[in-house]
Sodium:solute symporter family protein
Amino acid sequence: MTVRFAGVIGAILGGLRAVAVSDTLNGFWPLVGRDEAYGTLARGVLPPALTGFFAAAMAGAIPSSFNSALNSTCTLFSLGVYKPFFNKGADDAAVIRSGKVFGWNR
């Protein structure tokens, strides 16, 4: 539990820091809104060579999060809707197949 909590804090700490010092940042970098705070803070803190790596990490994290949400949704459908309501005696292969059909992953 402590490791998960530390991960959540680590994930949002940069954004919270950017919002907390937004008045200071406005003196140096023009912030249009809170949507640009995290990227502006990263540009200001990271050296230019690491900014590309940061952008690549963010670009990789977005599809990963989407895939995780899709996987969770398919699992919830298969075990929470398909098996109890449509096919109570379904074996594992049928439950997995229903999740693939629900997620359009044939």
